[in-house]
Amino acid sequence: MTKTDGRVLALDLGTSSARALVLSATDASPIPGALARHKISPAYGNDGSATLDLHEYAEGLLGCLDELQQNGHLDGIGAIVLSSQWHSIVALDNNGAARTPVITWADTRAVDLDLGTSFDEHAFHARTGAWLHRLYWTRRIPWLLSTSPAEQFAGLPDLVLERLTGERVTSVSVASGTGTLDLATGSYDEEALEIAGVTADRLPPIVPTGWTGTLSTEYARRWPGLVGVPVHPPTGDGAASNVGTGGYDAGTAAVTVGTSAAVRVVHPIEDAPELPWELWRYRVDDKRAVTGMAFSAAGNLHAWLTGVLRLESDEPAGVEIGASKAVAIPFMAGTRPPAVVPSGSGVYFGLSFDDDPADLLAAALQGASLEIDRGLRLLDSLFDRQLDVVLGGGGIDASQWWRRCLTATFARPTTVCAEPEVGARGAAAVALGLSPDPGGAHLTPVADEVARVADLRRRYEALRELAVQASTI
């Protein structure tokens, strides 16, 4: 990894927005005012589709760079880095032209696989960090092959990188999110490729973390200040968010809340602890892995409820942590693997005429906090210690009440990352070898709140089991 004397241009390829921002090269902190954003509106269909228009996405991102240039922010750039959503896929023809839109992680279309009794999914999961779930290319590619004569496959970050540099390659981090990577070797897994029905030459080549490209001639003319600036391979958003939040060692769990949420630990890939069935594992870079659990309802749940309930405030004003009589099981968007609860399975228990909108919001945020706590406790056990916790992401930044609720639910102190753009910051840190400090407030759990949440936990877990059972009926 090579440090740069210039500033860093970070491209953040999210599901709800594409952003370009300029960061300091010393600590990856954002330069004030040097941010451009293009709103993304995924297309959802009754068939389970959740897609992005590739051309519109790329043009929106390029427009962000134009905006930064117009405002004089592309001068003095020494590196270009990318953070991207994991799990996306696009089917391509033999000339590399897209035959499909971008299939996102939220898309539920895939094929069922019957691999017979000889297939050992636990061994497969231990090797790849993934399951045979629709989230991954092992089930996406067979479905795409059954619907269109695709010749090649790539993810959104691979195609954005190709658009900028003319080279279609991928990183070990992005490749790990496809579910087709052997985590130990950093190469495509032969069994995963066989299941997907493709050979490695139909997927983007995996380049080492130290690889760099440069802008193609077309974009060098468009942004003269970026001529010759090295473009680093993309980092998966989960890995980038952990590092950007300050959770980049095996003693710290990062809890990030954006559209969805996750709790993760970054650790060396060498001598990594045996992976439990309930957790996934991807790669950060050539030497580090990230192990964790993800949750489909988080910032999206908060935004939906504040709109539906017509709350004037984003906070459940007047509701004490752990005191809500109603219990919400936040399965509105289903669960991530290996659980199989479908979307549309959210439940409220114990509603009464005494409840007001703030009570309902508090119950939902508390339920999401208890879900995240399940993952944190698994990671505590895996790493044989009570992990330090750092909180980050837009959802954390937006709600003081939720920060306190998470701290009480975890029953341990937390540190709040002061920087909301954790994905871009982490991508810069991975590419340039930086170790950003969270730099935010330290929260101490309040004893009364911890006790109320502990009492609520038993009721929540019993009701959660009922919700899981009902989702299969």
UniProtKB/TrEMBL annotation:
MF annotations from Gene Ontology: gluconokinase activity
Residues of the Carbohydrate kinase FGGY C-terminal domain: 253-431
GO biological process: carbohydrate metabolic process
Keyword Thylakoid: no
EC category name: transferase
Keyword hit for ATP-binding: no
Enzyme Commission code: 2.7.1.12
Carbohydrate kinase FGGY N-terminal domain span: 8-244
Keywords per UniProt: Kinase, Transferase
Top-level taxon of origin: Bacteria
Entry similarity comment: Belongs to the FGGY kinase family.
Descriptive protein name: Gluconokinase
Organism: Kribbella shirazensis
